[in-house]
Structure formats: C-alpha cells, structure tokens
Amino acid sequence: MFAILLTFFLIFKPQINPYKHQDVEDYLQPYKNLYRCDANFSNEDEGSKVIREEFLRKDKNKDCFLSKQELNIFALDFNDMDESNNNQISLNEFLFQKNLKDWLDEDQNGLISYKEWKIVEQFLPEAMMMFAILDFDMDDNISFYEYDINKTAEYLQVEDAIGFFHADLMSLYPTFTNPSKRNLETHDQNMDGKIQIEEYVMKGSGLITLVFMDMIKSMGPEPFETTSAEMLPILIALDKNGDNKITNNEYSDFAKRLCLGANKLPEESFFILFDSDYSQTLDLFEVGDLEGFLYIFETMDLNQNFELEFNEIQDLLMGFTRYDKFKEGKLIFYFGKMDKNNDDELTLNESGLSLENFQKIDKNNDMSLSRREIYAK
After folding, report:
1. What class, spelled out in words, does domain 317-375 have in CATH?
2. Any idea which of 96-105, 156-165, 263-272 has the lowest mean pLDDT?
3. What is the pTM of this model?
4. Is 90 left (phi over 0), alpha (psi -120 to 50) or beta?
C-alpha cells in the first residue's frame, strides 16, 4: 500500500525553453509502443474488451495496427480514424473512435465536449471529475491526444500513471494549456489568468477523496481495529485529529495533501502527506504511531526541537522510497526531473540510491542509468 501512496506524486520543474506542441508525439512515443493490443489488460472494462477483440480479429498480420485493407476502407472512414496521420490505425485510435466519437461526439468535430460528456454522468456519478482529469489542456474538450495519454498510462499499470503523465507533461509543456473560462473561474485560485501546476493537480482532489472513502469503508465500521500493518500509515495520515475516526473533512484534507505533493519527488511527497498541520515539520503527534518513528525522532532530531524538518530525514526517506520504484520501473516518470545535467543518464548522485542498489540496476556497469535500464522490470 505504501507503493500506491509513494508513487502518486511528481516533481514540477519549470523549463526555460518549453517544448513546442509538435514535440509531444516524440516524447510520448516510447510509452505508446508499450500499449500492445494483445497484452494483458487487467483493468479493462467490458466495452473496451469487446472493441479490442474486434480490433484483434481485423488485425490479420498481428502487428497491432490496422491497415486500410484490414480495416475495410469502404466501410469506415480511414482518414478520420487515423488521428496521428501515419497511414495506420492504432488500438488507441480504434478505441477512441468506438468508445467516444461514435457514441458521444454529437457534432462530429472529433472532440468530446464538456456538454457531450455530461451524458456519462447518468451512469457514473464521478464522470465530471473524471472529465476534469482527462481534459489535460483544460479547454473543456477531450481530444484523441488526451485519450491516448490516459490509455497508455492505463496499460503501464502504475496505480497513479494518469497523474504521472499529466504532471510530467504539465512541467514539460507549460504553454500548452488553454484553459476555458469555466476552468479559469473554478481553478485559478491566485487570479493570475493561468492555471498553475498546483492548481491543475488539485482538480483531482474530489476523485481522490472518493477513492479513499471507498477504500476505508470497505474495511468495515472499525477500520483502526481491523487494519493491516500496510494500511495503518494511511489511516494515521487520514485521521488528522487522532480520534480513530475519519470525517469527510479529513478525507478532503488528506486528498489536498496528496495534491500538494504532486509536484515533488517521492520522499518529499511522503513528508507532505503526514504534515497534517502544514507546518513543514513532522511532530510526534503526526507520525508517532508509525512503527520505528520514535527511534527516528531520537536519532535524527538534530536541533532537538521535537520536530523533524525535511532535511533531517531526507536521506532516510529517499532510501525508503526510491529503490523499490526504480526496481519496479516506475521512476521512469521521474527521469527528467532527476537528470540535473540533462544528459539523458542518471549518475549515482542524481539517482539518490546507495551504491549497492545503484549497481543492481546498472546492468551494463557503466556507472550511469539509462531510461532503458530504469524501465527494465
């Protein structure tokens, strides 16, 4: 369960020279190639499964793309479906057409508008919160580009992959967003006419609240009495006043802390998650029930103020959060943030790993980590 929490967050680092919109495709291509049409889709809904099976039947040469001949150009508008204009239809393009455009795109403009999407709310109460997350550029439309990001993230089977992709792309393409008037009125908290990364990721707090409410309620009426060792830290972080009961306000506050950590590396976001009073320090009340933290206080509270500043436990948290994420391939999403000198390789210092763990991942023993080595599971 720690993995679910600790991988939820990203660091935001503004770029001096933002990438142009046309660079997005090149950036995403390595991830898109992972979305194989014949892979194991553990979270696939029944509708998408039916459509994918139709895709597989049409894909005669089993290359996970449909040609004009395979698609039957006479029955369908190939060019309209070929969103990437590469003269072949990917599984995502096929799903977008069948899942959204054929069903929701009433004006046939290739986009799913906020108004068109509202019909989904009849079947899924959380639909509009999902729309806010899917609508990456906040223009009140879902395009194939946005759909493609989310389907690719879904395949990667990282619990928070959608959050990773959005936050990562937000940091790479800060000028790409084009918020609608409605989104500016709703999310532009500092009234500067722009949506900042913190304001952007806060959009998902309502959905996060629902997810954790469902998770804790499924444990029964007395979750603190029946919890596992893995779930206890989550309950402690949720229970802001320490009364062993979790209110709606505490769920909401927990979600906001998750979002505040969304522009940070794992060790920073973990720190923020437990900093329930937003003091930028951890006291015994906030973490005292976590196993081992009393010892941490005694040994790491260097200034003896009975509070832990981030710098006092940074190395400990880094060792705790990073190796498993590297090992699981999930820190591929952090690569650009850790690569301080932008040489597309991570040194030992940039990785934040111990030498022993670094060498376990450094398969070619060149004392640097490539994206390929990080993603190799």
Report:
1. mainly alpha
2. 156-165
3. 0.69
4. beta
